[in-house]
Amino acid sequence: MSDFPAHTTSPTRSATSVAGIIARYRPRMEPAYEQIVGDFTRNVVLDSAPTSPDIARDRLATVAQFARWCWQSAALELDRRLLFQPSVIGRFIQAEGRNWKAPRRRRAARTLTTVGNHINATKYRPPAVPHAEALAAPYAASERPWMFSWAATIPREGRRLVGHALLGFCGGAGLTTRELLALTREDLQVDGDRVSVNIRGEHPRTVSVEPEWLGPARYVLERGPQTGLLLYPNWIHNRRGMLAAIGWRSAGDAPRAHRLRNTWIVTQLNRYPVPVVMHLAGIDSIHALARHLPYLDQATAVDVSADGTAR
To answer: Which fold is adopted by the domain 141-257?
Structure first.
């Protein structure tokens, strides 16, 4: 047994300290979100009755990030009974936690679930946190509505155009980020209900936009520049950085170009022979397709042999 006395904190002092921390908390974000997110966060965390200053700080930071994502990216009303559902928390963890280490993802899931259970008198368990590999998995068809809604509700028209281009041409035609940024209006061909993309660069090819993604593609055709580069034509410096700067990181829930392309590749592998898909995707090595194999339909059998041939 230790000879040193245990450190104790007066319940009254602790409660006062916690209340003061919550009252003084101000989330660091754009002024447009600071007040509504801050008010929601302070009220929710206060009602969750944190028992120590450290717990209060953790809940404030986590709930604020969660509330901002719900309000800004997922277009959800800040209704505490609707937001603190396992499905919504799970979506938030997948969106915001893509680059977090697993312990941080699990901690955020536990914190939000604990807060929700306390303020709503529920008994939910924290949602399962996917491995990092799952965050690069193809999107399900059922996810298209929220992606289309995300693109339609991006605040500024310039960013809204980029959001639709991301969906229409990465999701609908399998373009890489580099190819998307190099796309010009002259590269797009319209023939009735069909939109084709002439992709230039290292792997020139022509790809038709998948019917399910024609809506975003047509938005770009109607609203975008009628000549020259489609995305940020006047920005000639660090164009890859420009794509990251339009709100992908701040929005969190925004669809990712690589996952959209992965989704398109899996669709093609379920439909066409491997050599055809390699050409359409601009892929040189068949081994690049190996990571997509777990997501193919069971009826689609693709085996990549050691010498790099498909059988």
So the answer is: hpI Integrase; Chain A (1.10.443)
